[in-house]
Amino acid sequence: MHTRIEFATSQAEDELQELFTAYGMSMAGDVDEHIVVKQDNKIVAGAMVAQLDNSLYHILLFAVRMDARSQGVGSRLMQAMLRNPGRYCQPPGESSDASYQVTTVARGTAVPFYEQNGFIACDFSELAYPFDTQCTGCSDKNRCNPVAMMFARS
Ligand SMILES: CC(C)(COP(=O)(O)OP(=O)(O)OC[C@H]1O[C@@H](n2cnc3c(N)ncnc32)[C@H](O)[C@@H]1OP(=O)(O)O)[C@@H](O)C(=O)NCCC(=O)NCCS
To answer: What pLDDT, in 10s, does the model give residues 114-149?
Structure first.
């Protein structure tokens, strides 16, 4: 099977939105700011990561198609992003620091996945604004059980 990780294009918008909608998520910006994993030209995962400063990145979206889960697709994409997060941001950039952090807010059910990929749970106050307060007052908070997570490369 031919697997590629690339930026999404406008032709992929409906397919990508459908993947996110299945989890009650929606795209976090322009379609071409998102990363997709394609297997034989079918999108099996989508994500978005943003660079917040020289050494800080935040994953805004991350999801694997229902029928492609538990096959290592998510870990493969995550490890690629963690090795070189700047490459997957729009505009792509390089961290000028050898050490950097990648943060995210995980749904409670996804915490084991993030831990398996090197993240540890942290306090929401350790996230950059506006992510530190993104769940405050959310009516879905109890169902979602969000956890702030951090990956540090030193
Ligand atoms: C979380 C998610 C991205 C993982 O992607 P994936 O391709 O299935 O992950 P991998 O196959 O690389 O790794 C799977 C492992 O992660 C862990 N894991 C993933 N989802 C899990 C869950 N809901 N509960 C417990 N462990 C989970 C398990 O250890 C699992 O191993 P297993 O399949 O042998 O049980 C995917 O399940 C998903 O898109 N979930 C819905 C959306 C979501 O929660 N996004 C994440 C942040 S909000």
So the answer is: 999 999 999 999 999 999 999 999 999 999 999 999
Q: What is the residue with the minimal CA distance to atom 36 of ligand 1?
A: 64
Q: Of 113, 58, 111, nearest to 82 (Cα)?
A: 58
d(CA 29, CA 40): 25
Structure tokens at 89: 């941001």
Report which ligand 1 atom has the smallest distance to the Cα of 78. 12
User: Is the CB of 63 inside a 6 Å radius of any atom of ligand 1?
Assistant: yes
| CA 69 / ligand 1 centre spacing (Å) | 7
Which domains are delineated in the chain?
3-153 (3.40.630.30)
- pTM check: above 0.90: yes
